[in-house]
Specification:
By secondary structure, the protein is mainly α. It contains five helices and no strands. The chain is flat, with a radius of gyration of 27 Å.
C-alpha cells in the first residue's frame, strides 16, 4: 500500500483549485463571502439591524393599535384571543417583510426608497416648459 495513491493527480489539482485563497462570490447575492471584520462592517451591520427593527415594527405596531381597539372597549376572553392573534400575525408579517427587504438590497436601501420624495423629479422639465411657453 506504500506506492498506491488515494487520489489521482487530476483530483488533487481540482482540490487545490477549490482551496485557493481568493474569495468567492455567492451566485445569489453577487457579494464576496469572506468579509474582513472591521469597525466599518460592524457599524454597517448594526445600521442594517436598526433598519430591520424599523421595518418589522411598522406592521407590528399597526396590529397592536387595531388589536387594542378590538380588546379594550369591552374586554373578554374571545376578544383577547382575537386581538392576540392579530398582534401575532402583525409580528410575523413584520418579520417576513423585514427579512425580504434585508435579502434583496438591504434594509437601509428599502427605507430610503420608501422615504424618497418624488415631488422634485419633474422640476427642471416644468421650469423649461415655463421658460419656452410650451404646455404639456
Amino acid at each position: 500500500m506504500k506506492g498506491k495513491r488515494l487520489l489521482s493527480k487530476e483530483e488533487i489539482e481540482y482540490i487545490k483549485k477549490l482551496l485557493d485563497k481568493k474569495p468567492r462570490a455567492s451566485p445569489r447575492r453577487k457579494k464576496v463571502i469572506r468579509v474582513k471584520l472591521s469597525v466599518y462592517t460592524i457599524i454597517e451591520f448594526l445600521i442594517e439591524v436598526w433598519g430591520w427593527v424599523k421595518i418589522m415594527a411598522s406592521p407590528f405596531l399597526a396590529a397592536v393599535f387595531v388589536g387594542s381597539f378590538i380588546y379594550f372597549p369591552s374586554p373578554n376572553t374571545t376578544k383577547l384571543v382575537i386581538a392576540s392573534s392579530l398582534v401575532f400575525a402583525g409580528l410575523i408579517g413584520g418579520v417576513i417583510l423585514a427579512n425580504r427587504a434585508w435579502k434583496r438590497n438591504g434594509t437601509m436601501d428599502y427605507l430610503s426608497e420608501i422615504m424618497e420624495l418624488h415631488d422634485f423629479d419633474n422640476l427642471k422639465a416644468d421650469k423649461d416648459s415655463a421658460d419656452t411657453g410650451d404646455t404639456k
